[in-house]
Amino acid sequence: MKYLIVGLGNIGDEYRDTRHNIGFKILDALAEASNISFTTERYGDVAKMRVKNKQLVLLKPSTYMNLSGNAVRYWKEKEGIDLSHILVLVDDLALPFGAIRIKGQGSDAGHNGLKNIAQMLNTTAYARLRFGIGNEFPRGCQVDYVLGRFSADECEKLQARLDIAIDAIKTFCLAGIQNAMNSFNNK
Fold this sequence. Notes:
CATH topology: Rossmann fold
CATH architecture: 3-Layer(aba) Sandwich
Oligomer: single chain
């Protein structure tokens, strides 16, 4: 069985290590832990790996966040991946730093990357892992916060939170969405 694991982010050095690029960061951590590397292919950087008997296609779209649906649709069709085997990794302002929420479907909650994926797939019935980035910013400074870098304190705690996100991805693929939700939501 194949799974498409999509980390959302923006390409370019100016966005590297920003809060908004946590999806890329999670996939980079998974690839490093699995001793694999990404290659640049159509619509993004792609890496393939196995977790037991499951094949995972890791995708970091090169289409910029707001057009991520093009890459997701292309790789879903190219690899013949069922909609229920797609997991999108995304930042979430509404969650405290490092908190994880997994859902099998839902609204885009104002996230333009999720909105574009729903438009291109013509459904909101795809799984997503929301990684909390907190909301410790003054009124009117949301964009600067999201496109800003993690604080020193957050950086110290980040690897442990990335490891939990990696475990959640593996659980999604090996045991299904319900088990992943039960095991990792509120963790």
